[in-house]
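Schema walkthrough. Field components (list of strings):
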Amino acid sequence: MPSDLVHLYMRIDHLPQIWCPGCGNGVIMRDVAVAIDELIHDEDNPIKREDIVIVSGIGCSSRAAGYLDFNSIHTTHGRAIAFATGIKMANPRLHVIVLTGDGDCSAIGGNHLIHAARRNLGLTVICFNNDIYGMTGGQYSPTTPNGDKATTAPYGNVDRPFDIAQLASGAGASFSARGDIYHARETIEIIKQAILHKGFSLVDVYSICPTYYGRKNKKGDAVEMLKWQRDNLVPTARYYSMSEEDRKNKKLVGILSFNDYPEYTEEYAKIVAACRKTKKG
Amino acid sequence: MYGRKKLVIEPAWCKGCGICAAFCPKQVLEIRKEKVVLRDEEQCISCGLCELRCPDYAIYLVNEEE
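Field assembly_structure (string):
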């Protein structure tokens, strides 16, 4: 008998999930379920379960759309945001949540990401960022740190990595944030805010891949990788109370940028309304 | 909240990654034969940190009366 949360929001017959022991994806998927549950029961901002749509692409992370028991669609590689765009345009009332991985989101689907961000289309993108292509056997991805090893970078990665949260923010996303596995409670709060945000919101959640990234780079097991997150990632409140000296080599997890740019479907509806008026007149 | 919630373990879902045991503030969990076990129920403070970080949903709290 799994917990009430799992019973309510996941497809039990598909569980236990097939992710490796210690994989961070399960924690992020639970964070999303908890965030949705708390929003459904929030008297100030209630959202309806039937208005939630989960869209995913391809990759380890994207299996989450199969496990989560909502209106869900598991799409082609990199195209989750493209499918989500169609869903949101057809019915702007829906809360469309894209669950994607670092490769799916920033390599194969990189173009969709930057243009959805530029349009400020009201989607929520949760990126399960584990720094590697796990499902296909540990090839380096656009977020693999420079110098780290992967099956396709046996002597170290030459590329410099993307910072997906900053990439989205630079492309015009009105909400961009980072989360991680260790600080799960903080990440749940960020995901809640991202879902409630009207424009394009992206949460880059640092996952862990002990099987490929951890093993190739001698980062230890899941526990060691989580200890690294505990010691090197700092939630907003603590980060801003630290001295510049202490902040060196630490990374902020929290909301990086927040704007109230006009949302795409609303602007589109205005055009439609204006055209109808002209026609009648 | 002390003592009002009970810890439940689902061994069939546990993959033995050890995250719950490593970050348990009271160190009451341990991994035996690749599965988590509650070593000392008396010392568990029902904080729920194990449930929060278990990737496999194999450990969780339930209300005592259930």
